[in-house]
Design goal:
By secondary structure, the chain is mainly beta. The protein has no helices and eleven strands. A hairpin with a 6-residue loop joins strand 4 and strand 5.
Length: 117
C-alpha cells in the first residue's frame, strides 16, 4: 500500500520560510516523479513543483526563485523549501507521486500552509 506522509506545514509571516517534507512508502521511489500540488480555498489545484529521479525538475512560474524542490532517493523523501512566502502561497500542499510528469497516481493527505501577519 502506498503512503505519502507530509510534514512541515504551519503558520508563517509574510517573507518567512517553511520546509515541507514528504516521506514515501510502498513505491519504488526512484521510478517516480515526485511533486507538490497546492489548493487554496475557491481555487483550482495547481502543480507547484515536481522532480524526477534523474534530476530534472519543474517549478510553477509564481514560485520560481522562492521555492525549491529536492529529493533524497535513499530516504524516499521529497522536500519543498519555501522562502519569501506570500499570502497567496497559503494553501493545502499535497505530496504526489507519478510514473509520468503529467499524471500523479498517489496523493498524500495534505499539509496546511498559512501565511499571515
Amino acid at each position: 500500500q502506498v503512503h505519502l506522509v507530509e510534514s512541515g506545514g504551519g503558520l508563517v509571516q509574510p517573507g518567512g520560510s517553511l520546509k515541507l517534507s514528504c516521506e514515501a512508502s510502498g513505491i519504488v521511489f526512484n521510478l517516480y516523479v515526485m511533486g507538490w500540488y497546492r489548493q487554496a480555498p475557491g481555487k483550482e489545484r495547481e502543480l507547484v513543483a515536481a522532480m524526477g529521479s534523474g534530476g530534472g525538475f519543474y517549478h510553477e512560474d509564481s514560485v520560481k526563485g522562492r521555492f525549491a524542490i529536492s529529493r533524497d532517493d535513499a530516504k524516499k523523501i521529497v522536500y519543498l523549501q519555501m522562502n519569501d512566502l506570500k499570502p497567496e502561497d497559503a494553501a493545502v500542499y499535497y505530496c504526489v507521486a507519478g510514473r509520468t510528469w503529467q499524471n500523479y497516481d498517489h496523493w498524500g493527505q495534505g499539509t496546511q500552509v498559512t501565511v499571515s501577519s
